[in-house]
Amino acid sequence: MNLYTYWYFIVYSIYERFSHDKHFDIFATAFFSVFTGFLVIGIIGITLAFLNIEGVVLNSKGAVITGLPILLGNFIFFNQKDRQIRLHEVFKKNRSAKKDILSVLMTIASIIIFVIAARLNMEN
User: Fold this and answer.
1) Collapsed DSSP state (helix, strand, coil) of residue 46
2) Cα(43)–Cα(30) distance, integer angstroms
3) 61-95 burial, b if ≥16 CB within 10 A, otherwise e?
4) Are the C-beta atoms of residues 121 and 53 closer than 8 Å to each other?
5) Rounded to an integer, what distance in angstroms lies between the CA atom of residue 2 and that of residue 97?
6) Is residue 52 scored above 90 in pLDDT?
7) Which one, out of 13, 35, 61, 85, has a CA that is 20 to 30 A from the CA of 25?
8) 14: part of which helix (H) or strand (E)?
9) Would you state the pLDDT for residue 109?
10) What angle do the packed helices 97-123 and 3-18 form, to 10 degrees?
């Protein structure tokens, strides 16, 4: 299981624990897509700031253009029930504390990277 899939199922498991909705998997995928989008947009934004290029990715159009493929890709990959059940079983077998901590740190890092990119692009 790759790190991206493992990260998804950490978010999925946390959302499952606190959600009372029967369609929590759809919301968990959207929530995971937000974190993934923060990471991608943040990395692009930081790169553009260091290259002194106007940070178009951090405006609303850039965020939609970048975030929409991430959201659609995650829904296509993770929300097919048979695949989701199979991958969740693999996740439960391979779960470890180190990987859980790494996934939580990636979630926090995605937010921090996005905030840094936003600040860098505001200064330019």
Assistant:
1) helix
2) 20
3) ebbeebbeebbeebeeebeeeeebeebbeebeeee
4) no
5) 16
6) no
7) 61
8) helix 3-18
9) 95
10) 100
- Residue for token pair 């959600």: 19
Higher-confidence residue of 88 and 52: namely 88
Give the integer Cα–Cα distance in Å for 63 and 117.
Answer: 13
From residue 83, alpha-carbon distances to 42, 53, 76, 111 in Å are: 29, 41, 10, 28
Q: How far apart are CA 78 and CA 29, in angstroms?
A: 7
Residue-level pLDDT at 53:
77
Q: What is the mean pLDDT of residues 27-34?
A: 92
pLDDT at 92: 92
| Residue 96 pLDDT | 93
Contacts of 107 (CB under 8 A, 6+ apart): 7, 10, 11, 35
Q: Is pLDDT at 76 greater than 90 in this prediction?
A: yes
| Residues sharing a CB contact under 8 Å with residue 24, sequence separation 6 or more, in sequence order | 15, 16
In the chain, the largest separation of any two C-alpha atoms, in whole Å, equals 47
The secondary structure element, H or E, covering residue 108 is: helix 97-123
